[in-house]
Amino acid sequence: DGCMKPLFIIGAGGFAREVVSYLKDSHQAGLANYEVKGFFDDTKKEGDTHCGLPILGGTDTPIDPDAQYLIAIGMPEARELLGKKYEAQGANFATLLHPAAYVADTSTIEAGTIMAPFSFAGPNSKIGRLAFLNLYASVAHDSSIGNYTVLAPYSGTHANTKVGSTCFVCAHATITSFVTVGNGARIAAGSVVYNNAPDGAEIFGNPARFR
Predict the structure, then answer these.
(1) How many CB atoms lie within 10 A of CB 97?
(2) Cα–Cα distance measured from residue 109 to residue 146, given in angstroms and rounded to the nearest whole number
(3) Nearest Cα to 119, choosing from 81, 94, 145, 80?
(4) Is 11 left (phi over 0), alpha (psi -120 to 50) or beta?
């Protein structure tokens, strides 16, 4: 299909396999029109294959200005590092919203973000660049998460919360209403955050404590 947009995936691990599946589902649902050309990965050998697609080189490969890119790496720091590296070269990032995700029509989702099946972006929510919402992760109404932030499965925010950039919210963690979490924070699995947390905080427990 000559109208399909070339797309390259950065990272060729387990998450990349999920991203390829999300792209297939989105294409079948008529929500995406990309042709995946292959992967860039610094740990794999050029010419090898992953998910039946070629490893095209490392992350220093010059960008194609006519193509779209997705970062298929689940750690916030790596998403930030690679995102800034590619943005500095003028790369265009695709936004991948799985057809089984719920996205309110008043939500704002910036480029490069990936929403997995059954994830949720509520009314007036704001999701920054290159973020990732995993299975059943949710951002409630009037809440926001920053650039590069990752919400693990079943984690989420209540209403009117603000989560900074490059945060990692582990599985089943909850951020309660009107709470602000600073940039670079880490929230342990199963934690419940009732109070504002500073930049770089390690947050754990119910009720959550900070370190």
Answers:
(1) 20
(2) 10
(3) 145
(4) left
- Return per-residue pLDDT of the chain as tens, 211 residues: 457 899 999 999 999 999 999 999 999 998 888 999 999 999 999 999 999 999 999 999 999 999 999 999 999 999 999 999 999 999 999 999 999 999 999 999 999 999 999 999 999 999 999 999 999 999 999 999 999 999 999 999 999 999 999 999 999 999 999 999 999 999 999 999 999 999 999 999 999 999 8
Q: What's the one-letter identity of residue 55? A: I
Single-letter residue type at 5: K
3-state SS, the chain, equals: CCCCEEEEEECCCHHHHHHHHHHHHHHHCCCCCEEEEEEECCCCCCCCEECCEEEEECCCCCCCCCCEEEECCCCHHHHHHHHHHHHCCCCEECCEECCCCEECCCCEECCCCEECCCCEECCCCEECCCCEECCCCEECCCCEECCCCEECCCCEECCCCEECCCCEECCCCEECCCCEECCCCEECCCCEECCCECCCCEEECCCCEEC
Rounded Cα–Cα distance for residues 104 and 10 (Å): 28
Amino acid identity, residue 184?
A: G
In sequence order, what are the beta bridge partners of 34? 5
- 198 cis-preceded (ω within 30 degrees of 0): no
